[in-house]
Structure formats: structure tokens, C-alpha cells
Write a structure and sequence with these properties.
The chain is of the alpha/beta class. It is built from 5 helices and 5 strands, in the order E-H-E-H-E-H-E-H-E-H. Helices cover about 40% and strands about 20% of the residues. The chain is globular, with a radius of gyration of 13 Å. The model has no long low-confidence stretch (mean pLDDT about 95).
Amino acid sequence: MATPHVLLVEDSCVDRLVASRLLKSFNIRVTAVEGPMEALTFLDMEHDVQLILTDYCMPDMTGYDLLVEVQKSPKLNHLPVVITCTEDIPERIKMCLDGGAKDYIIKPIKVVDVPRLLSYI
């Protein structure tokens, strides 16, 4: 199997660094961006992303908003999206999963979460 490519969307530089290092330790190629608009711009140019891992709480656009944009796009709607958040809010989790997210993981991302993420690729 080729090296998986994950697009990490995270506004916190610390969380972005921690998640990137963890994923890279599993030989996963990571492209990290600070927000949903940057992610959509990158996705418009890049065609080998296999999973979007996005924070929920970000300024301007939430991870759910990004999920909706990905789902609406015929070019992108095949991509699995996993939402991460520090908050365990059942209504939010249900909304994200009902909206098409493959999973909702409570941050921080842990070693035990990585095989689960890879299963969506």
C-alpha cells in the first residue's frame, strides 16, 4: 500500500504539531493547514489526499462547515472526513456523523486512534 496522505486541518499550532508528529510516526504523509478555507484551496489543487482530519472549533468556519463543503463537491465527496474536538457534546457528535463524518474523535489524538483513522482510507 502506498503511503497514506492525510490533510490535517487545525487552527492550534500546538495541536497541529502534536497530531502531525503522531501521524508521521505511523508513516503517514501529512499536509497540515490552519483552517477550512486553506483546506479547500489545497484540495482544489491536490488530488492524492485520502482522508481529511479536521478540528471542529475554528474561527470563521467550523469543521462541520468544511464537512458540508466537502460533501457538496462532486470532486471531493468521496473523501472520508473525521472531526476532532476537545468537547464531548452528544448533539454535536450526532450532527457531524449524520452530516457524513466517518468519525468524531475527542482530542488529543492518541496512538490508539491511528489504526481507526487508517481504516477509513
